[in-house]
Write a structure and sequence with these properties.
Gta3_dom; single chain; mainly alpha; two-stranded antiparallel ribbon; Glutamyl-tRNA amidotransferase complex subunit Gta3 domain-containing protein
Length: 158
């Protein structure tokens, strides 16, 4: 195990030594060419983009008041009164979330390799600790269930 770690560390240092002239060149070039200024590891010193700037190029979806009420009903939540600041705020936030989801759905992932973590346990449960409860097993902790779903009693005004 230690030999492998030492080998990996040596490989990393060789890679850094090979890349160092490129990083230094790019860092110097960035200062003069208007590109983002980077540190010694090639990491930009300031943000190069923002989610807001990205999303502003996508069309803004609209959510009807009826759809907002329906989502509150499905969530067993009391919807805010229409026309109030809270109603406007929640509606705007939900529209922005829909905009983000639609933008993510448009990302072209053709040719992108999925990064996988090897399953060293052999049981197919990557990231699950022994004895950890998951999936439908969590339902046994619920006060009420029906047909494999949680039942939530909602004391709501109508």
């Amino acid at each position: 195990m230690l030999a492998r770690q030492a080998r990996d560390a040596a490989c990393l240092w060789r890679a850094r030594a090979c890349l160092w002239p490129c990083v230094r060149h790019n860092s110097t070039q960035a200062k003069t060419s208007g590109l983002a200024e980077v540190d010694s590891l090639g990491i930009p010193l300031k943000p190069t983009w923002s989610v807001h700037a990205l999303l502003s190029s996508y069309p803004k979806p609209t959510i009807s008041d009826a759809a907002l009420r329906r989502l509150h009903d499905l969530s067993a939540l009391v919807p805010p009164e229409e026309g109030t600041e809270e109603h406007k705020r929640i509606k705007h936030e939900l529209e922005e979330l829909v905009r983000l989801v639609e933008a993510v759905k448009l990302v072209d992932t053709t040719g992108v390799q999925v990064a996988e973590r090897p399953d060293t346990s052999g049981d197919g449960n990557v990231g699950v600790l022994p004895g950890e409860v998951e999936g439908r097993d969590l339902l046994k902790h619920a006060e009420r269930t029906e047909d494999g779903f949680y039942v939530v009693e909602a004391d709501r005004r109508r």
